[in-house]
Amino acid sequence: MDVDRLESVAAQLAARVREDDPEANRRWLHANTTPEEREALHYVQAAATPVDVPWSHLIAWTRIPGGPDTPGNVAKRRRELLDALDSQVGNNQHGPKVA
Question: Which of 39, 48, 73, 85 is paired with 11 by a 20 to 30 Å CA distance?
Answer without folding.
Answer: 73
